[in-house]
Amino acid sequence: MRTEPLTAQTWPDLENLFGRAGASNGCWCMYWRLGPRYHERPRAENREELASSGRGLLAYDGDLAVGWCLLAPRAELAWLARARYVAPVDDLPVWSAPCFFVRRSHRGQGVTGVLIDAAVEAAGAAGAPALEAYPVDTSVAGHTRNLFPGVASAFERRGFAVVARRAPDRPVMRFPLTGPDRS
């Protein structure tokens, strides 16, 4: 598997991955920018906003896009500041990987892990001090079944640590990219 950033050239691959309606019922990865308001907008408007933002990574199996990860500076994702359980931990200008989508035929095959690794590399190359994620802790009884933010164990295996937990099943996890341990 390989990864590529979202560009004008890879946009058709994302459209193929998401399908005509857009992943997650027309979200087009606008939830973390708009919150639940994304439902009130036409799907085409969500699609166009993602196309113009140009932020994210695609995972490929051969020439087929099989996974997606939204990746952007946290400051560009306004809903993250408003969502109680993932509100900022501090003032560090982290990048965020808050959303994943994997083609049904490729689920359970490590696509999310490939995307997490690529997100760490891309955020580091962009000069981010850390990469944050807001996964679901599936070891917690009664956890949400909405796994689009990823699963905590996948991040933990890659060196992410919990820096806050405001809901039992929703840790804020962080991977340091600069500083004494990473420079």
UniProtKB/TrEMBL annotation:
Residues 1-178 form the N-acetyltransferase domain. SUPFAM superfamilies: Acyl-CoA N-acyltransferases (Nat) (SSF55729). InterPro entries: Acyl_CoA_acyltransferase (IPR016181), GNAT_dom (IPR000182). One of its GO terms (molecular function) is acyltransferase activity, transferring groups other than amino-acyl groups. Pfam families: Acetyltransf_1. Transmembrane segments: none annotated. This is N-acetyltransferase GCN5.
